[in-house]
Amino acid sequence: MGSKLRPFYRIVVADSRSPRDGRFIEQVGYYNPISQPEELKLEDDKIMDWLQKGAQPSDTVRNLLKKDGLMQKYHENKFSK
Questions:
Q1: How far is CA 68 from CA 17, 19, 26, 81, in A?
Q2: Where do the coiled-coil regions begin and end (predicted)?
Q3: Per residue in 22-76, pLDDT tens?
Q4: What are the residue boundaries of the structural domains of the chain, listed by start?
Q5: Which of 9, 47, 48, 78 is the most exposed place for a label (fewest CB within 10 A)?
Q6: Sign for the pseudo-dihedral over CA of 55, 78, 10, 61
Q7: pTM score of the predicted model
């Protein structure tokens, strides 16, 4: 998404067999690195639900989730049982 020199990224849940820019199951947030400050909107409950179902975030999305504190929350929930 976005346009030339104006990046804007949707964070989506997609099947691993789908092409990178192809079909996706659900949009769970977006990231706008151009705005000041950087705008990161995540739907925490949906992301936690997908992670608990076994979804694996890409390296870039994992870094964004760490920045927002979601990965820490996920690991606390996973290992507190």
A1: 28, 27, 20, 23
A2: none
A3: 999 999 999 999 999 999 999 999 999 999 999 999 999 999 999 999 999 999 9
A4: 2-79
A5: 78
A6: negative
A7: 0.85
